[in-house]
Amino acid sequence: DKLGITAVNLPQQLTSKGVHGVLIQQVKPGSFADEIGLSSGAVITEINKTQINNKSDYTNAVSALKSGQDVVVSIVDPRQPSGGNFYRGGTLP
User: Among the four residues 39, 64, 71, 77, which has the most C-beta atoms within 10 Å?
Assistant: First the structure.
């Protein structure tokens, strides 16, 4: 995708803990996601203030992004979901 991420729906054990979003399965080296510090294993919960609940939400949000647009991604560490969100951002090439 435009971000350079392979994302999948969350496993049941995370959704049962109240976590929403998509799990980053893989980050393409040298991609936008790699440049802004996203890593596999993190959960994306928002893209540009659009809540991500599942793979469909993620696909829709990413498809709306345009080259040259500022992008802010909210992520959560699934091992510590109550630890709060982390934000990574940059300008999409």
Answer: 71
